[in-house]
Amino acid sequence: MRTYPFIQLDVFTSQPLQGNQLAVFPDASGLSEAQMQAIAREMNLSETTFILPRDAATEAREGTKVRIFTVEEELPFAGHPTLGTAFYLHSSHPQKPARVTLDLQAGKIPVEFRKGQDGIFGEMRQLDPEFGPTFPREEVAGAIGIPADELDDRWPIQAVSTGVAFTIVPFRRAQTLANLKFAFHQAADYVERSGAKFLYFICPQRAAGALKLKARMIFYNGEDPATGSAAGCCAAWLVRYGLAQSGEQALIEQGEQVRRPSKIYVSASGAGDKITDVRVGGHCVEILRGEISF
């Protein structure tokens, strides 16, 4: 019998029992890839992360090696697992380092921490964006089952990647987005042909000078309460098309439809195709500890 401790966190929230759930295994040494995948299925969360400790010199040079699994597959990068795993490493370290670097399949992702009004705030810098193809409004609307005029034609529907590709789909009205009845299988074939991993539905609104967005992301395991990887893609998209100024922080609110409200703070710098410094941040709350034996 082998026993592996884990910590469960609520990510992109300062309130327990909200945000996106994440299980972190602090020491996955000796687990095979198949076993990690089986454990992720057992946890049945959006993602589960596995830390593979290395010697201190290697970790100082390369960062902490982490693998990320959904219930179906391993991902090279994902946002809330990155923030949540880095938060665990920060909070469990006696010196509470201001920066934690994760060594992921997609590359090295630094996460910086600072004290805020609602506790410790973590912010990752994602990879510079790659802008992919754009898609016809009528085609996308047909794939998701809504009238084409419910999608906003002021901005393009476009695939963007900062580690994982999402197609950004802007809605005209927040109420239409809130009422959307959508199952991933409806558009699975279309999404696969598009070259993106998933669709990210957004509705941007500017009020009193502040930019806020409502967002939803529905995938093969249901609706995601918060999608940090998509939020980084969205931040780059916002700056490229002038919805956000270079360096301006916007707030993405996600998860309301599944009763797990999340707050994701995003920004990016640059103009046109030259977007860089994509930042995605938020808070985390540790919610439980346990162990799995098999």
Question: What can you tell me about this protein's structure?
Answer:
The chain is an alpha+beta fold. Helices cover 24% and strands 43% of the residues. The chain contains seven helices and 18 strands. The chain has an 18-stranded mixed sheet that branches. Helix 3 packs across helix 7 (228-240). The relative contact order is 0.18. The model has no long low-confidence stretch (mean pLDDT 96).
Name given to the CATH homologous superfamily of the largest domain:
Diaminopimelate Epimerase, Chain A, domain 1
Helical content stands at 10-25%
The chain-level structural class is: alpha+beta
Poorly predicted tracts of residues:
none
Radius of gyration: 18 Å
Order of helices and strands: EEHEHEEHEEEEHEEHHEEEHEEEE
Which CATH architecture of the largest domain would you pick? Answer: Roll
Largest sheet: 18 strands, mixed
Shape: globular
Number of domains: 2
The CATH class of the largest domain is identified as Alpha Beta
Give the beta-strand count. Answer: 18
Please report the distance between the alpha carbons of the first and last residues.
6 Å
What percentage of the residues does DSSP assign to strands (E)? 35-45%
CATH topology grouping of the largest domain: Diaminopimelate Epimerase, Chain A, domain 1
- Nearest-integer average pLDDT: 96
Number of H/I helices: 7
